Amino acid sequence: MGPPGLLWLIAFCGGILAGRTWPGIPLTLPWLAFLFLPFVVLKRPAVTATAFFLLLGAGLAHHRTAMPDNHILRVLGHRSPAPATLEGIVTSDPVASFGTVRFTISLRRMRTEDTWERVSGQVLTTAPRGVLPHRGDLVRAETAILSPLRGPLNPGQDDPSAWMKRQGIFLEARSRSVALLSQNRAPIGVAVRAVRSRIRASLDRWFRYLPEEGLLIETITIGKNPVPPFLRQVGIRSGTYHLLVVSGLHVGFAMLVCRLALFPFFGPRHRHPAVMQAILLAAVWTYACIAGLHVPVVRAAVMFSFVLLSDMAGRDVSPLTSLAAAALLLLALDPSSISDPGFHLSFAATCGVFVIPRWINSLVPVRFALKDLASVTLGAYLFSLPVILFHFGRFYPLSLLTNLIAVPVAGVATVSGILFL
User: What is the pTM of this model?
Assistant: First the structure.
């Protein structure tokens, strides 16, 4: 990304941090326009553009962190935690364990003492395992006891509550039962659930006597949220946990499959290369939908989309420029991502994949498969290492070696799963 564009991205990030740090400042649209007016009068385009992105970031962050008057935290106030009935849309994939199911509800209304009132906000809901809703379904949680999110129960245990609060989830509810009021009938959602069910059925049939191996293939190929505990522990200890979360690497494998399938029809001499880029763009988002449209895979799909769109436009745009534009777009859609470790890891690893292989190719111009694999793995590892140390305080010296072995294996598993499932 050129110097002006990089400055705009930095200004945008600075505005988001300012808006999150001082949420009490009334950064409404009239105030932002008033603050922007002096920069317009200066008639210096570079300064005006930088001020625009700074104020835009601050305004978006303020808008996302401000609570409306009907937010459930404001509605409850200092009330006693009496049982309530909650209605809303399921916004996360249900997680079933030990006879219970847990998911997030975006609230529409709440009933306390036989009185319904409209509320907003998100609540992490736990209920006995019975009805298993899908994302987009309208549900009702009966006799729900609301309480603030709890931190880890044991020392050294992961604390997901910090991440949830950044996503606007401040309360959890324990409900006696959940009723399904209406199902999500969106064509895309129905199609995705059908495809994922068919894939799971195929894996259950092929790995009938090897359930753990089948679970591993499912996790690597189409993703599983959350990652099964035994795979999560193995991934963390070996430094290969990123292979168990569908992200940029898996989207790249999906694009490879699509390119190989299209090569007989869209070879190097094809007259309309933009057609192939359009098909690849559709394939990227199809795979992202099948993988569940979780945050890591959406980030990767956006990044690849910018690269493909620049190719379709016939413009020689640097991958780093596309990466920075994707970062700007994702931060505009969700300013809270600026403090998300996953966001930092995604862009750090992708940036390393772009930078280090080019540097190694300039030093060693001879091309061979092992060097390309090693340079890509080294780039992702070196750029991700500072982020891992900052957020998690953990360092796995052997993870570089294990990734040199695990990445090709994961690639074969992903490609095989896409081709044969």
Answer: 0.76
